[in-house]
Each structure stands twice: as C-alpha cells, then as structure tokens.
Amino acid sequence: MNFLRLYFGTLKRVGLSLWILTAIYNSLDQFIAQEMEKGLRGPDGVSSFVWFYGIFSMFVGIFFPVLLTIVALFGLSRQSGSPRSWSDFAFKNGNQLAIETMRSWGKILLSGLFFILPGLYRLLMYAFVPFVVVFSKRYELGQVDALQFSTELIKKHWAKVLVTILSFHIVLPLSLSSLIDDYKILWVTPFASLGISLMDALIWVMASQILYQIATRLLKEASDEFAF
What we know:
Number of strands: 0
Radius of gyration: 18 Å
Number of domains: 1
Shape: globular
Distance between the termini: 26 Å
Order of helices and strands: HHHHHHHHH
Strand content: under 5%
Largest sheet: none
Helix content: over 70%
C-alpha cells in the first residue's frame, strides 16, 4: 500500500508533465524513424536528409530521456521532503545529469561496440547514475564519481535492478512495439497517441519508483546523506 501511495503521489505531482513530454517524445521519435526509412528506401537512392534526421534523432534521444528523468526525479524527491521548487531542482541537477548521462551512454556504446554483453553489463551498472547525481551528498561534494558509485551500489542488489530494467525498459516496450508504433505520432492519430503516451508515462514512473526505493535505501546504507 505504501508503494501505491507514493506512486500515485508522484503521478499527482508530475504525471501531467510526464504525459505531455512523453507524447512529444514519442511523436518526434516515430516521425524521425519513418522519415529515415523513407530516405533509405527512396527510388533515387539514399536521401541526403537521412544524415539530418540521424543527427536530430540523436538529439531527441538524449534531450527527452534526460528531461523525463529530471521531471520524474523531481516528483520522487518530494517523497523525501525536498523543499526545492521545480526551477531550483532543474537548475541544480539538469546540467550534471546531462553530463553524467552522456558519460554513461558513451561508455555503454563503446563497451557494446563489438560484444553485446559488456554493453549490457554497463547498462545495468550505470542504472543508478541519475539517483546518485540528484540524491547523493557525497557526489554533490565531489567525493565520489557517479558512474563508479552507481556500480558499487548496484552490485549489492543487481538482481532486482536487472529484473526492473528488463521488464519495464526492454521486454515490455519491445513486445508492444509492433502493435503501437504506427499510432504514436500525435498529429496523425491524436487519441491513440495520447493513450499510448499515457501508458508509457505510467510505466516510466513505475520503473523510476522501484529504482528510486532501491537506490535511496542503498544510499542510506552507505551512510550517504540526501543532497537537499
């Protein structure tokens, strides 16, 4: 019951914002994918616009997940009594969260460039990076590296984190992809798009809530104060 109370409390605080952002993200992501497919299969060969859409896809793929993470973590931080407003929270954590996210993704991509298992291992080990950036006092004071500290924490409860990531970020999205991808663009199928985005936002908060509770418990066990 406590989990559900906290879950719906987070939805009450940031659910609408996450829904809107997810609808925009889904629409842009699917639109770019369709345009790239058209460019690659054009009668005149590969279109020059494919490179533009590729770069735009990278920007969207970094910007929106970071923004969604910041919004979700702001909602979750209110559970711990954070007195900060949204503007203060975003200003303090946005830059560092973007930097550490790009660092972690860079290492994940390099590790998985030739062999997939090392990349998946780092993907698991860096799952707590956003929580370290936002909630760790030791990180705020420059005493720990976000990627290394995330790895240390996750090694203590790697099975729970693995199940959460596989369930909410890999298995569920992939199993639904063939059924819903064609209906994600807001200006083409608005009602279906909003429904899909609502489902994605609910899943995002659920996964974030589970990881948040594991991460904050491990931070307390590591004698790390919250950075509020």
